[in-house]
Design brief:
mainly alpha, elongated, 0% strand
Length: 113
């Protein structure tokens, strides 16, 4: 019965499809290009997240830490130098960040049901 009602008013369905399958992947591709152009593996993951129907939740939970990470990277490089950042900081934080991102995605999917 609900499907018949939805078919009578297709505008919300069309808007949802456009948002999930056109706007979200394009936005994620733009974010990946802006923030992750040097990290193709992460950039691909961000673009794939744009295809997932729960992209709006993921954008919030991935975008905020991403912005903080970019800010902290800029500050650390200014204070300690690029070599220290690449050799010392990234080797330690890289493993922690990957595990934290995986845990966050698992939590997000489990909470969405």
């Amino acid at each position: 019965m609900k499907i018949v009602k939805a078919a009578k008013f297709p505008k919300p369905i069309i808007l949802t499809l456009i948002g999930n399958w056109v706007i979200a992947p394009a936005l994620m591709a733009l974010l990946a290009r802006l923030f992750l152009s040097d990290y193709l593996g992460y950039a691909s993951g961000v673009i794939l997240l744009g295809i997932v129907p729960i992209a709006e939740s993921v954008i919030l939970f991935v975008g905020f830490p991403l912005a903080l990470g970019q800010l902290s990277r800029s500050i650390i490089v200014k204070r300690e130098g690029r070599e220290w950042f690449n050799n010392r900081f990234r080797s330690v934080i890289g493993n922690i960040a990957g595990a934290a991102l995986l845990a966050m995605i698992i939590i997000l999917f489990s909470l969405k049901g």
